[in-house]
Amino acid sequence: MKTALITGASSGIGETFAKELAARKTNLVLVARSEDKLHKLANQVESKYQIQTNVIVQDLTASAAAKSIFEVVLEQGLTIDLLVNNAGFGDYGNFTQRPLEKQVNMIQLNITALVELTYLFLGRMQQRQSGGIINVASIGGFQPLPYMSVYGATKAFVLSFSEALWAENRDSGVKIFALCPGPTESDFFKKAEFPEFAREGSEAKLTSAQNVVRDALEALEKDKSNVVTGEFLNQVIVNTSRFLPRETLVSLVEKQFKGLDSNK
Fold it and tell me: Can you give the pTM of this predicted structure?
């Protein structure tokens, strides 16, 4: 039976990955900060699907967090067949009016931890000539995002990094790709401190986490370099940069995102 390690597994897309993979008879290593939520999820999928789960409580914004996770996996004698780098968060607002610590932690979580975990587990997958890595990016990674400047930049990094590794590893037996969801049912907007009325107005447009995960696992089987999930509008958004000058595009995005907050 194969084993998947999922970061940010306590809620949202990460939790859904855990449930879907468990249903497909995959053992799990669940990683997040929320110990109670992780153990509740582990007990649920173990009893329902008769799989094995391991829980690692870890704040990935901490230095050396990825190395700690890797060492625990080695100590427990586990082989990771699928790595899902899902943990991440965003933040809404004018860059200089948002806490610097939050922006730096976002870079640590969305980029640094993801790169470190990929590096640590990819080498062993290459040695076995098998395995998969799903790096969760966003449709926001295809163009700059004023008022979410750091978040958009981190997801642009994840997209570029993952596509480069996809090309490097095409003959290695390891599949790597960037998962690029649009707005998805989760607590992302709340944690990013989006204006409440904007969150409420977008509820009807949210894609279910189940659909995102199923699209992701299908893309993994097809060995795609990236997959954009959600409604057709998301495809339009990610391809707009091919037809508009960058200054025009980012100006349009700035007007749209500024309009989310009535105080701006």
Answer: 0.91
